[in-house]
Amino acid sequence: MQSRPNLSCHARSFAAALLLAAASDLAAAADPAPDKEPSRLVLTGGYGQKVAVYGLGALWQIPVAVDTLARYGLDTRLGADILRWDGPASGNAGEFLWDAGVTPYLRWRPTEGPWHRSFAEVGVGVHLLSHTAINPSREFAIAFQFGERLAVGFDFGDRNRYEVALFVQHVSNAKIKEPNAGLTYFGATLGIPFD
Questions:
Q1: Residue 191 — very low, low, confident or very high, per pLDDT cuts 50/70/90?
Q2: What does the mean pLDDT of the chain come to?
Q3: What is the average pLDDT across 132-158?
Q4: Taking CA atoms, which of 8, 10, 29, 134 is between 20 and 30 Å from 73?
């Protein structure tokens, strides 16, 4: 039988507050200049290990060492997501949990040439799960998890303000506590500018 600590309400409240704060900051700080990346609303969908993942997030640039990183085609991003994980039915009902995550990303893109609209990025962040299991065979032991993501994508549309990416994501507690089933899934994101 799975453990369901009373974190559900707190995790959802925390995640909602995080997304609302991020969205209001992003809307206030959005810079429509063509040389700046716009802040984006991010739609996410994925699937792996019999678990479907989908949700909303926000993505914006972090002004850290901008000039130094730009020389190498790099920049930094910060993403915040609220995702729902739906697992297979276990007995009389399907199982799901909520995942609130914050991830900084390092993004690389070619500075010129035919691939200048494409990018690759890597991110390592933290996640808070609403429950410590999604079904009897996938237990996470604790609500706090780490997440690693590797993605490739490209910009498109008016002034390259939209983006689409394919990614692989792994979420686990880094063996802080057993069982540590973790979850690895593949997915796609669509980024839509806030302004």
A1: very high
A2: 83
A3: 91
A4: 29
Q: CA dist 161 to 37, 65, 69, 126, 164, Å?
A: 7, 23, 21, 27, 10
Predicted TM-score of the model (pTM): 0.79
In 80-176, which ranges are continuous DSSP H helix? none
Distance of CA 33 to the CA centre of its chain: 25
- 120 closest CA partner among 102, 137, 108: 108
Instruction: Specify the pLDDT at position 31.
Output: 38
Using CA atoms, how far residue 62 sits from 38, 59, 156, in Å, is 11, 10, 21
**Residue in 55, 60, 54, 17 with CA at minimum distance from that of residue 195:** 60
> What CATH number matches the domain at 8-193, 2.60.40.10, 3.30.230.70, 2.60.120.830, 2.40.160.20?
2.40.160.20
